[in-house]
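quick q for whoever's on today - can somebody do inverse folding on this one?? i tried earlier but teh output was garbage lol. tokens:
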């Protein structure tokens, strides 16, 4: 695997997402639902957001991929997440976990660990969240975001240095990154390549969006515009990717 492979994967995933419009079910927090849905739609995917326990299994059965985001976890969302994961497992569907704020609550960290035992394809979090999670089973791709995004799996590490500091000033860019990641996993069987491609895509989009914004308030909408306009040329020109393999 080379950086050029990741750029090629990102371009291919982008056009497949636009052609196939994969359904991405987001069992997510109440803070970022609109931004996450808008970002997925701008990308070309088809989001759904219900967390109702009566319906979540039906939605999972009719979507290509699911992301579980623990941002505003409450008893109802916890129960719905259990039902959704059971259905995803029954159908052999892949899913992504975003353990938002698991570093701030022992209860949430314990629930995140329960979900990890149920086998998401990818876990994405910021530095503090991934530090709380610590090690993951070998079968799960680990994505730690920040000024640089580090994607780890099977002794290989991919570092994506794209992105913009304004991303840290807009609530929901991490959650949207988790949603974009899920859309890429929906169209690319290799979850590590999909994750690296997705982080490159949102990072390059952010770099293209920044000059069109005057600060955090205008950066969010500009990011949506840039996700919709993103193309292979931009990925090729702006991607900054390094890959390393563990020795031995
Ligand atoms: N200082 C930064 N420079 C460039 N990109 C950043 C920076 N901080 C965050 N990002 C990007 O913003 C997105 C969200 O990352 P992060 O802030 O770590 O997540 P969260 O919002 O969950 O805390 C990722 O795509 C990441 O690459
Ligand atoms: C602030 C906040 N509180 C609960 S969920 C949430 C949104 C987190 O979004 P992100 O981690 O993507 O900035
Ligand atoms: Mg987050």
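ok took a stab at it. sequence:
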């Amino acid at each position: 695997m080379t950086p050029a492979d990741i750029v090629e994967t990102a371009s291919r995933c982008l056009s497949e997402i636009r052609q196939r419009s994969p359904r991405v079910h987001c069992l997510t927090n109440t803070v970022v639902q609109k931004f996450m849905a808008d970002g997925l739609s701008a990308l070309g995917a088809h989001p759904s957001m219900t967390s109702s326990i009566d319906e979540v299994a039906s939605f999972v059965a009719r979507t290509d991929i699911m992301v579980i985001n623990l941002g505003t976890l409450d008893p109802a969302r916890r129960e719905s997440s259990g039902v959704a994961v059971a259905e995803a497992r029954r159908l052999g569907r892949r899913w992504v976990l975003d353990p938002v704020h698991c570093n701030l609550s022992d209860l949430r960290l314990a629930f995140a660990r329960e979900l990890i035992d149920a086998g998401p394809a990818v876990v994405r979090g910021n530095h503090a969240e991934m530090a709380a999670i610590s090690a993951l089973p070998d079968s799960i791709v680990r994505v730690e975001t920040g000024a640089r995004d580090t994607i780890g799996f099977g002794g290989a590490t991919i570092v994506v240095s794209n992105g913009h500091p304004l991303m840290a000033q807009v609530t929901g860019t991490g959650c949207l990154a988790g949603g974009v990641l899920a859309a890429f996993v929906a169209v690319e069987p290799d979850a590590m390549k999909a994750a690296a491609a997705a982080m490159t895509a949102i990072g390059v989009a952010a770099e293209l969006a920044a000059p069109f914004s005057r600060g955090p308030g205008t950066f969010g909408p500009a990011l949506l515009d840039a996700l919709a306009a993103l193309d292979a040329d931009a990925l090729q020109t702006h991607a900054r990717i390094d890959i390393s393999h563990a020795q031995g």
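fwiw The radius of gyration is 17 Å. also The chain has one domain: 3-245. so keep that in mind when u check it
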